[in-house]
Amino acid sequence: MKKTYIGLTCLLLLALALFVALSFYGDSLERWHIKTGSFARVLIGDTTHRQRTPSCATDSTRAVSQAPGQDFSQTVDTARKSILFIGDSMLEGLGPRLAAYAEENGHTLVNVIWYSSTTEVWGRTEKLKEYIAEYQPDYIFVSLGGNELFVSNIRDRRQKYLDNMLSQIGDIPFVWIGPPNWKPDTGINEMLAETLRPGQFYLSYTPDQHYDRARDGAHPTRASASAWMDRVCAWVMKSAAHRIVLHRPKAARTTCHTVVLAPAK
What we know:
Organism: Tannerella sp. oral taxon BU063 isolate Cell 2
Mean pLDDT: 82
CATH class of the largest domain: Alpha Beta
GO molecular function, one term: hydrolase activity, acting on ester bonds
Structural class: alpha/beta
Protein name: Lipase
Shape: globular
Number of helices: 8
Distance between the termini: 98 Å
Low-confidence stretches: 19-73
CATH architecture of the largest domain: 3-Layer(aba) Sandwich
Strand content: 5-15%
């Protein structure tokens, strides 16, 4: 009888050892269709990646992060667009390059530069809505934030203006180009990234993007701004929420249809 108990005990120990081995090494036995067991997860914890997405990105790919249930497999909209590009003085460098893209791809473009403007300056007025009514765009680019890099308590002071701008844009597809920081900001990029939907915000301040600066140390040089716009347009075609045709132009442009507003007070 004692030998019988010893034999049963040995069989049970062997079965347990086999079960543990299969639980730990199930992945390497995939050809036998054995899944990783739950017993190993109990012993060593679930090894499934649980990395938390940072509130603001560390590289330009963050701007294309996908929301649950959102389909980014859509094809590019090949229709010719009437584009409105509004923003601050960064448009001096970005505008002509986008104009070259528009000309190359059959779009029309109007740039509206409001010097020294911010989300507050635009958001406390109805000017954006007025320009939309005047030019009837079916695609909008926005470049704002460079004058708000160091605003303290930015959500308390700017969120309502940003929301008003988005309300004025309504259902028109758009892309917001974030500022090309020369120093870390106090929250403008994070506010934009968390307010806008995936595929609507291009994060310009990332370690993999370089800017040559003009004498003021803030604005990119004309060549660097053109390269910046090239990156934005490539991203729009590949990863924007609403993709449009923006093939790289064969020629540059130095002029474009531009409306200039006096510096904001």
